[in-house]
Amino acid sequence: MSDSALPPDTESVGGQQVPASGQSHSYIPTPEDVVGGSNTGTDGEISSGRPHVSKTLASDVDNPASEANASDHLTLGNQTETETVAEYGEPTETCSSETPATTEQVVAGPSSENAPQGERVKRSLPRVMAVANQKGGVGKTTTTVNLGAALAELDYRVLVVDLDPQGNATTGLGVDHRSLDYTVYDVLLNDVMADECIEPTDLKGLFLLAANLNLAGAEVELVNQMSRETRLKRALDEVIDQFDYVLIDCPPSLGLLTINALVAATEVIVPIQCEYYALEGLGQLTHNVELVRKNLNPALEVSTIVLVMYDSRTRLSEQVAAEVRAHFGPKVCRNVIPRNIRLSEAPSYGQPITVFDSSSRGSVAYRELAREVSDGT
Ligand SMILES: Nc1ncnc2c1ncn2[C@@H]1O[C@H](COP(=O)(O)OP(=O)(O)O)[C@@H](O)[C@H]1O
Ligand SMILES: [Mg+2]
Question: Which of 84, 146, 270, 344 gets mutated to test ligand 1 (max ligand atoms within 8 A of its CB)?
Fold first, then answer.
């Protein structure tokens, strides 16, 4: 569903439009680049932080609301959370029988008929999963923290990697980054071993590789580093045998931090908010996943779609869920995460929902999700 909206002679990598030849201006090296080992970047302009607007749907061009929204897809140097124009609109206004334009455009795309059929696959451990969606505020961190906690409750050993300079997964797990000697920044840029940075959390079996605001600089500082795309992978390789699950909380962009997550992972989990414009930007994400898969990490796949902030009172949630299922087939988890106020309160107490309010709907939902993700059923 991704490529059709991109101009024919360009492709987008790390949020950067580059010539389709993909010779040099890419965060993702071609196999020749990797073999040649020369990764040190002729693309200094990428590091300038010049914002780049990435669009994914052809329909955006004709849709003024989406046009406005497209400016939210700034990638480099923009770590702020973004909101889409209609995300927080009144549900009552959206309960028409009309299908939301954006999702319709996506789902009506060529691959809707080819949606994969069958069951989810049971996978062997360890599993390294990047939780990615370049939109902000769609539930990446909430899913990382709470799925991680629920998996730890199932007696898996879980590492959460906070790869967002906002550090929300870090604070959400009750870790004060000011008390830490090292964070993931030092792993990526100062060659500190991951082992030295991994902290236990209050929950048995749940560990954290924390982030702080230093990480905001990493997006730019990485550009001129050797092996800039594989640094997280190499660090995690050293500790992977200690864990069953590694969940990487990605920032709301498709820059080098997210590329590092996609190179380190074998799976991508995409949380999708059951709201207007839910699928906007997903083409860009799947395109980047595909580029990383082709050039750096053949094992990578989008394995899991999680519908979040589902509001059963609105037809919009129902419609978005139905369309996401039609499009992505069995990749979409059976269990959906409801909109639940307790989920939004838990982070300020530094606790996952399973600890903060064990019987809340949000807690039950993330436990069910953990069972589904880990069972493959
Ligand atoms: N299922 C949910 N119900 C209610 N609030 C939620 C839910 N999921 C996430 N939120 C809230 O929405 C906001 C954005 O979620 P977050 O996980 O931080 O998104 P992201 O990491 O994608 O930016 C946060 O305030 C979070 O507490
Ligand atoms: Mg987040």
Answer: 344
User: Which of 122-126, 150-154, 274-278, 312-316 shows the lowest per-residue confidence on average (mean pLDDT)?
Assistant: 274-278
Full residue range of the structural domain in which residue 58 is found? 1-114+125-377
Ligand nearest to the CA of residue 363, numbered in listed order: 1
Calpha distance 152→155 (Å, rounded):
5
pLDDT value at residue 221: 95
Beta bridge partners of 248: 130, 161
Pocket probe mutation, ligand 1, options 142, 146, 345, max atoms within 8 Å of Cβ? 142
pLDDT at residue 11 tops 80: no
* pLDDT-based confidence at residue 281 (cuts at 50, 70, 90): confident
Show the beta-strand stretches assigned E in the chain.
Answer: 10-13, 16-19, 127-131, 158-162, 198-200, 206-209, 245-249, 267-273, 301-308
**Ligand 1 site, CB within 6 A:** 81, 136-142, 168, 252, 308-309, 337, 339-340, 343-344, 347, 362
Count structural domains, the chain. 1
> Atom 27 (ligand 1): residue with closest C-alpha?
344
Q: What CATH number did the domain enclosing 302 receive? A: 3.40.50.300
